[in-house]
## 1
Amino acid sequence: EIVLTQSPGTLSLSPGERVTLSCRASQSLHSGYLAWYQQKPGQAPRLLIYGASKRATGIPDRFSGSGSGTDFTLAISRLEPEDFAVYYCQQYDTPPWTFGQGTKVDMK
Amino acid sequence: QVQLVQSASEVKKPGSSVKISCTTSGDTFRSFSLNWLRQAPGQGPEWMGDIVPIFHLANYAQRFQGRVSITADESTSTVYMELSSLTSEDTAVYFCARDYTVKAPYFQFWGQGTLVTVSS
């Protein structure tokens, strides 16, 4: 199965800062079949990005995704207070669909 | 508004089975694959399998093969996930989730989650 490795494990930042999160796949995702989610405690994950770079319905444009092959990035241009959460990447190139272990973005 | 409503939390003994339900609308039931995922404390989600409800066609992740069964009931627009031979490592929140669109297995719509605790 495809293993997704996210880095860093935790980021401590302040509101207004820019953040970039990394997701590396153990093999190439040929059609950029990668999604990003945000999760807050006690909630289901929220879909942010699919197809590596397409924003899901209702997602603010401060969230952007990029990458191809094995290396993907989620960027948040200016952190808002509601953006402090855990972020996961998910591949849907080859079943079983797999998720990374997450990057926690917390407030400095 | 897409709704996925799951059954309540469960406490199970090691070696037993658990069956969780996820009820949705007829439109969702007829048109989309429904997936089961789980999330252990402090870990990322883990995909367990999915079903095309109207065809009763289920696919399972290899690591759960032989231990998981996903079924569908058209009369109530409900899908079920049964997991057997439970151990403490199966303690997790279990979610159902709908494919974003046809053959697009990323997940915008989720149930509220069902906590399964396995403890002697």
## 2
Amino acid sequence: KAGVTQTPRYLIKTRGQQVTLSCSPISGHRSVSWYQQTPGQGLQFLFEYFSETQRNKGNFPGRFSGRQFSNSRSEMNVSTLELGDSALYLCATRLAGGTDTQYFGPGTRLTVL
Amino acid sequence: AQKVTQAQTEISVVEKEDVTLDCVYETRDTTYYLFWYKQPPSGELVFLIRRNSFDEQNEISGRYSWNFQKSTSSFNFTITASQVVDSAVYFCALGGYNTDKLIFGTGTRLQVFP
């Protein structure tokens, strides 16, 4: 069974640009969450999606947004990139919202210059 | 407020030693879940174990075991007979009921030397 897929794996952008990251869940998984990992702040929750609906959002500015498609694939977008947005962005998926274990993808490492 | 504390920043052991990683959590929820994830240098978070708040039974799974004590809000994780491949950053996480949101600790870097 294929794991969680994230594309691209590495990305370099400049300040002010925008970026879109993609997450394809494990087959059958309908719930997708996104996390940002930085050396200073650690792992922080961004948002979660289930059945194309955002169910919860972390404490991030409106520049961070996401969506989920009918096939459960999810994208997150960061507009007007800042240097501090450089991070490893991880997505996690699970069968359904609630009590199942989340499984993480390999992450997308974003560098903002 | 929910919080997870991993006081050990880094631990170094020699292969075959047992090592225990500490985790203390705070939550007002009565139903919650506790997790341990491992992050090797590749970056992917690998699920290790999960425990429900209503089940304090401690178990052993291969070389892994855990000690969940609600009275002290602790969820410690032990690797028996450590191996070099166990070298990674280990994260303890707290999850709520009906939400994907996980609160992570700051992680403990484990280095196992041959």
